[in-house]
Amino acid sequence: MAYSPASLLNPTADFGGTPSIGSPLLYIVRHGQNDDDKNGRIRGLKDQPLNAQGEKQIEALQEFFRDRPLLAVYTDDLSRTRATAMAIAQAANCGVDTDLGLRSWDLGKLEGKSIAAHKIEIQDFKTHKEKVPTGGESWGEFERSAHATLDRLMQCAMSSSAPIALVTHGSFIQIFFARYGDFDLGIRYDSSPLEQAGVAALYLTREGMQLRTLRGGKDDLDE
User: In which order are the strands placed within the sheet that holds 24-30?
Assistant: First the structure.
């Protein structure tokens, strides 16, 4: 999919400026639910739209972002993330940028299969980081790609006059939380600290970056 700069989709976007101390630098959002999420199946790069619950979740996300300044939303090319990103962008009146670096971990031929039935295989891939699943990528390769993507998007956020939002997948969010928060990656597949349609924000403070979960944390039953 072609790269679509937010500045083209929203001509009023202004990428000049710097973030304010104590304000959100960026938001990270997990996409809404699809049927593989609901049924405990491995998602990866398998493209599946949101289900009815996912559609309700992104309506709630629209309300969450409606009164929050937002410069642009970044997401990948998969249906579940793009639908989530477009809903947020509509509420915030900003553009959507496509960044393939925000994709999920590619588990190749395991995609669409039961997480529980393949638990040991997944743990083995995460423990032996350079081991490659058939038709997919190693966890180590995915981790390096995710960090490179974060380096690039953090540069954008640090030079923007308003926060940006990243709409992505549970596997990417694991790496984000391990990088900026007190989170142990572990070896489970579905160990993301955010539920579907969960939101966290990274704040710029005088003491450095501070990560806060705003909605849909794994311990938050009131999503």
Answer: 95-98, 72-75, 164-168, 24-30, 194-205, 208-217
pLDDT (tens digit, 9 = 90+) per residue, 150-204? 999 999 999 998 999 999 999 999 999 999 999 999 999 999 999 999 999 999 8
**Backbone dihedral angles phi then psi of residue 94, each to the nearest 5 degrees:** -135, 180
Using alpha carbons only, give the angle 25, 37, 140 rounded to the nearest 5 degrees: 60
> Which domains does the chain carry?
6-217 (3.40.50.1240)
Residue 15, φ and ψ in degrees, nearest 5: -90, 5
What token pair was written down for 130?
A: 């350079």
- Reported as type and span, the H/E element at residue 214 is strand 208-217
pTM for the whole thing? 0.90
How would you classify residue 55: left for phi > 0, otherwise alpha for psi between -120 and 50, otherwise beta?
Answer: alpha
Reference 158, options 205, 92, 204, 95; nearest CA is 204
9's tokens? 């989709």
Q: Which one-letter DSSP state was computed for residue 41? A: B
Residue 176 CB-density burial (10 A; 0-12 exposed, 13-18 middle, 19+ buried): buried
